[in-house]
Design a protein that fits this description.
Layout: H1 2-28, E1 31-45, E2 48-52, H2 61-66, H3 75-89, E3 94-97, H4 111-126, E4 134-137, H5 147-154, H6 156-178, E5 184-186, H7 204-220, E6 227-233, H8 236-247, H9 250-253, E7 256-262, H10 273-278, H11 287-303, E8 307-311, H12 330-347, E9 351-356, E10 358-360, H13 361-368, E11 382-385, E12 392-395, H14 397-406, E13 414-420, E14 425-432, E15 435-442, E16 448-455, E17 463-469, E18 473-481, E19 488-493, E20 497-502, H15 505-508, E21 522-526, E22 531-536, E23 540-545, E24 552-553, E25 566-570, E26 573-578, E27 582-587, E28 594-595, E29 608-612, E30 617-622, E31 626-631, E32 638-639, E33 652-656, E34 659-664, E35 668-673
Length: 688
């Protein structure tokens, strides 16, 4: 025991001395890096970040038909997965497998499609997403539909017709389940390379023929807007070849909504994590890879079609436990953040996908056999160890890397020019409305002080962010800080780290700020004459008539311009006088509902929403994520919506007899006893 104590003390002393030396060394090696950002030099419009979403049901098609209720994941585990993938990481799109289980060309079974809707899409919607954000996959895949190979050989025109029927059946079921026609659907996954899903002997011309046949079939079936993303070939070169052939055919081109590509084979530049760190991570991106992405970028630009990177996986089975790139390590996270940066910069991708949205050990064993490591799926977003009694869910390095972008860069954001004078400090910058977001990757082994200068734009009054570094710090929140001026800010990056920063409107906007100067204004609504009297701190006094005696006032920033809009709720109808977009009226709710406007999807715009006491249901019409209804609360509860976990999204919450029940968008459910039954919760003081 004495020896143990003595040894422990010596270790602590040594650790203290070593740490002190390290801190001193880092202080001495701080270097200023200049980053210039030009808001007027814009590139692609971001559509989102995602992954492939597959089923967790046991076995192949025949087994699923025999065991219709089988599932490798429990309901509780599924909820945790969706909260992690959609709520925490923030993926907002993805190709979702919706198989029809066609064991014969004339026999369709929709049980798996229904399972995916009821157990996957519904989970995404509950975590702030919309079905319109996802791309149903109805791949022409001869491996699962072997009858297609025979039909193609015997009757090629009938084969093309069958391809059309396959997709029409799938889209019809999708619309029945979701109520919408998807903007984009998936048609192929490595049709001529990698998986070779069209089988041996397939040609580029066959891909073109299928696109034309399927496109004509879906239009004839009444699907007037859906388009397809393709070809999603194994490599950039093969994707370029196949996409060029399709887009050069005017008839086929009209059906294409996006060009998708993969970054394989295993061991290549962007599949292998160590290659990424050794090249782009060391300030020397691979010239051939830049050239390949330039060709894809140019093809997309010529045809006015967005480019998506739709699949990548390390697949490093030989060295899955490398301390540099092990699952969740900072090397893994940083490598994929670099990959994201490079695809955004060199390929101008509008979307970036990880491998799978989630994967579980039971499914892994069924697919790859017992004894195989889950590390070969480390480029999926979340992994669930559920073998036996295990129940461990982890977000991977890929998940954390995507989160550094997806949590701050929303659909519709523009990538803007960002130039660093240090090739090992990579910066991506984005703007949406009056919000700026930055992702900064420090590949140096020492801390770096970054001086960011923004031209042709203005920063908000407060910056917030989070960084990942070392062995345990993942999305660790940075203390909010003020910029040095309206166009400059300084931040110190940890060694070998990834940092996200934003001047999020939700952080800097004051309630009841009618002139947008960041300060709340003294204001009153006079029911007797329906007049608003505003004493604005910068713009001065104004008065306007808007509303009647019985209206409930619901002032908030509905158009996201940083200014509170005058608005009223009247018998189930919202009347908004928006400062930028002008007047609008929207019927949403019932006369007995309680209006609870707030920014539930974190896009900087207040969403119209109501709480219905009779059923304890919240109905939200989110400006970006769309409609959702959530049962949370009971009659007599006081709604207290607010952002309780600091992710810029308002959380639904109620106060009941001295207890707060919070359904936080990132951190999940909690209950807090605070207050007396007769107390009035402060957030509810602003609920009319």
């Amino acid at each position: 025991m004495k020896n143990f104590i003595f040894t422990s003390i010596m270790v602590l002393i040594f650790a203290f001395i070593t740490t002190a030396q390290t801190i001193q060394h880092k202080t001495e090696s701080l270097k200023d890096v200049a980053v210039t950002v030009n808001a007027n030099t814009t590139y692609q419009t971001i559509e989102g970040f995602g992954a492939t979403i597959v089923s967790s049901r046991r076995g192949l098609a025949k087994q699923i038909l025999d065991e219709p209720n089988s599932d490798n994941i429990t309901a509780a585990q599924r909820d945790s997965i969706y909260q992690a993938v959609f709520g925490q990481v923030g993926i907002s799109m993805g190709n979702i497998s919706m198989p029809l289980l066609e064991l014969d060309q004339n026999v369709y079974n929709y049980s798996e499609s229904e399972f995916m809707y009821n157990n996957v899409i519904s989970g995404a919607i509950a975590n702030g997403q919309s079905a319109a954000n996802f791309q149903p996959a109805y791949n022409i895949d001869h491996r699962g539909m072997t009858w297609m190979t025979t039909l193609r050989a015997n009757n090629y025109p009938a084969y093309l017709t069958a391809c059309g029927n396959h997709v029409v059946k799938g889209l019809t079921k999708w619309k029945q389940l979701t109520g919408i026609e998807p903007p984009v659907a998936m048609l192929f996954n490595e049709p001529l390379s990698g998986n070779i899903e069209l089988g041996s002997g397939a040609t580029t011309q066959e891909v073109v023929d299928i696109v034309k046949a399927v496109g004509a079939a879906v239009r004839a079936a009444g699907f007037n807007t859906v388009k397809f993303f393709l070809p999603n070939e194994e490599t950039t070169a093969k994707s370029l070849e196949t996409a060029t052939a399709v887009l050069n055919d005017p008839t086929a081109k009209q059906y294409i909504g996006a060009i998708g590509f993969h970054t394989y084979p295993y061991g290549s530049q962007y599949a292998e994590l160590t290659n990424i760190l050794a090249t782009s991570g060391s300030g020397a991106p691979d010239a051939d890879e830049i050239t390949a992405r330039t060709k894809l970028k140019d093809l997309a630009a010529i045809h006015g079609i967005p480019l998506w990177m739709t699949e990548v996986s390390n697949g490093n089975y030989a060295n899955p436990n490398s301390t540099v790139t092990a699952n969740g390590s900072i090397g893994h996270l940083r490598a994929r953040a670099i990959h994201l940066h490079d695809e955004l910069k060199y390929a101008n991708v509008a979307a970036f996908f990880g491998m799978l949205a989630f994967w579980d050990k039971k499914s892994h064993i069924e697919h790859f056999g017992a004894g195989t490591s889950m590390n070969q799926e480390l480029d999926s977003i979340a992994l669930l160890e559920n073998e036996g009694t295990q129940n461990i869910l982890t977000i991977t390095g890929m998940g954390y890397a995507i989160g550094h972008y997806a949590r701050y860069v929303k659909k519709g954001a523009l990538r803007i020019e960002a130039i660093s004078n240090n090739s090992k400090v990579q910066v991506s910058a984005f703007k949406k409305s009056n919000q700026y977001s930055f992702v900064l990757i420090n590949n140096e082994t020492t801390a770096q002080t970054i001086n960011v200068t923004l031209s042709n734009g203005t920063l908000g009054a407060m910056l917030k962010g989070e960084h990942s570094y070392g062995t345990t710090n993942r999305w660790t929140r940075i203390t909010d800080f003020s910029p040095n001026s309206q166009t400059t800010f300084q931040i110190t990056l940890q060694p070998e780290s990834v940092t996200s920063v934003t001047d999020a409107p939700a952080m800097r906007r004051a309630k009841f700020d009618f002139d947008g100067d960041g300060k709340a204004d003294v204001s009153v609504f006079r029911p007797s004459n329906g007049a608003w009297y505003l004493q604005q701190s910068t713009s001065g006094f104004t008065g306007l008539e808007f509303g009647i005696n019985t209206d409930k006032v619901v002032p908030a920033d509905y158009d996201g311009d940083g200014k509170t809009d005058v608005a009223v709720f009247r018998s189930g109808t919202w009347y908004l006088q928006r400062s930028q977009l002008g007047f609008t009226g929207a019927a949403f709710g019932e006369s007995t509902d309680i209006p609870v406007p707030a920014d539930y999807d974190g896009d900087g715009k207040t969403d119209i929403a109501v709480f219905r006491p009779s059923s304890g249901t919240w109905y939200l019409q989110r400006s970006t994520a769309g409609f959702t209804g959530i049962q949370f609360g009971a009659n007599g509860d006081l709604p207290v919506a607010a952002d309780y976990d600091g992710d810029s999204k308002a959380d639904i919450a109620v106060f009941r007899n001295g207890t707060w029940y919070l359904q936080r968008s990132t951190l999940g459910f909690t209950g807090v006893a605070f207050g007396l039954t007769t107390d009035k919760p402060i957030p509810n003081a602003f609920v009319p």
